[in-house]
Amino acid sequence: MGRACYRLQHLYRTYPPEYFLHENCLYELTRPWHVHVDPYCHYVPAYCIGLSLGDARRLPDIVEVGLDLEDYPILRALCTSLGELYRFAVENYGYRPRPQGYVSKCHLCLDIRLHLVLESPREFRELQPRTFYEVVSQELRELGLL
Known about the structure:
The chain is mostly helical and 146 residues long. It has helices at residues 4-7, 26-30, 59-65, 73-80, 82-93, 105-119, 130-142; strands at 35-37, 43-45.
């Protein structure tokens, strides 16, 4: 789900992005029983490192009031389908799929998010911390995987 999908890709069958575009991440983003808080106090759903639902110190607001998805276009897309995220990135930010394909929907999502953080001038408040994306991209470049 994180760097492992790149590093261990050679062990798994890969698929083109179209294989995953019908899937969404609503379950992973909303399940209350497995979440993380990163060192920057970002409330991270499930295993989705680098994807923040907000400041964990404001957890009651996040859980009870919720998020206005108009302010979180990446989260909004992921709640609908990976196809929405994919089209958003391709049409607005020049994302191009990896010729090698993807081992999972999480691999596709992370690849798109890496592109959005590192290649677009826009900052997305849900794509935090930026340091995560910088470290991952540096490591993958050093390994020739990005």
